[in-house]
Amino acid sequence: MLGSSEGRYINLEEIRASFEFDRILGSGEVAGKPETSWDVLLDRGNEPFDISFPPVYGVHPSLTLKAAVLLPCDNQDGALLNSVVESEIAGETDAGQERIAKYVTSKTVSHLNDAVQHFQLVLDQCPVGHPDRAGALANLATTSPPVYIHESAQLSCKLLPLCPEGTYLRSIAAGADGIDFTHLMKTSYLRRVVLKLCPLGNEHHPKALDKLAWALSSRFEQRGSIDNLEECIQCDCKAISLCSKGHSERDLYLNNLALSLWTRFNCRGKYHDLDEAISLYEEALRLCPVGHESSDFPLDNLGVALFTRFNKRSDVNDINRAISLHREALMLRPPENLYRDYTLNNLALALNTRYNKLNVSEDPNEGH
After folding, report:
1. What percent of the chain has pLDDT over 90?
2. Theoretical Cys-Cys bridge with 141: which of 12, 90, 155, 304, CB 3.0 to 4.6 Å?
3. Measured between alpha carbons, how far is residue 264 from residues 189, 225, 268 in Å?
4. Rounded distance, CA 341 to CA 361, Å?
C-alpha cells in the first residue's frame, strides 16, 4: 500500500501474483480485485486480515496480510530495474497480462491477439540463456490461439528443458506423467502434432505414441470407426517395442495394448485378440510389485478378460482366477478409491455368473 507525501492513500485496484518462487516476470498475473475496501482494512492497524477475491477458474483466491504505509521513494535513476531492457520486458509482460484478463471476461479475440503480440515482444528480448526466457516461453505458449497450435506445442518443447522438476512452469510444458500439453486440448490431431515434435529417438517418443493411442481409443468410443482402434493398437505396439523390460512405464503400455485388443475382440470376436490381451495383462502384472497399489488396474483388467473368456469357453479355471484377481484388486482399492465400485461390480458379476453356471453355493451372499 503506497501513501503520498500529504498522507493520502493511493487505492490498490488489483493484486497480482507469481506462481514461481524465484524471478517474477513483470508484476505477475492478476489474482483478482479486493472485495473489501482498503479504508476498512487499514483501520485494523497491525492486526492480520484475510482478503478474498472473486473466483478465478473456479478457485477462490485468498490472502492473509498486514496493512502498512510506505512513503514514496525517489526512483528516478531506475534503481529497481537493472536495465532499460528489463523495464521493457516487465512493461510488455504486464500489458500482455492485462489483455489476458480482459479476454477472460469479454472473450474478445482481439484482446488475446494483443496479448500474444506483447508476449512475443518479451520473448524477442529474452534470448537463450536469459533468466526470464522460461517465463516468456510459458506466457506465449499458453496464450497462443488455437490456430497457432503447432507453434504453441513447439514453444512448450523449448520450455521443458528450462524448467526444474516441481515448478509451475514445468507443469505447463509437461504433465505429471511426461509430455502432455493438456492446455492444448486432447484430440488425435494435437497428439499427432506432439508426436511429430518428439520423433523416433526422442526420450518422449514412446509417451507421445501412448497418448496418441489413447486419443484414438477415445475417438473410437465416440464414433465407432474400427480404423481408429486399429491405429490405436499399432501405436501401442510401437510404444512397447521401444521400451526394454526394465522401462519404468512398460507395464502401463502393456496394459493399454491389452485393453485395446480386448476391445477389438468384443467388436470382431477373434479369440487370438482375447488370448493375447490376457497374456499382456499377465506380463504387466508381473512387472508390478506384489501388493503395490499400481497393480490394481492389471489385476482388475485381467480378471475382466478372464471372465470374458469364461463366458465364451466355460473353462472353470478362468472364472475362479477372475474372482481371485478381483478380490486382490478390491484389497488395493479402499472405500475412498474412485474405482472401488467398478471392482465391486466386476466381482459381484463374476460370483453370480459362477453360481448360475456351476451352482457354487457360497457365491450368492458374497455377490450381493
Report:
1. 33
2. 155
3. 22, 11, 6
4. 24
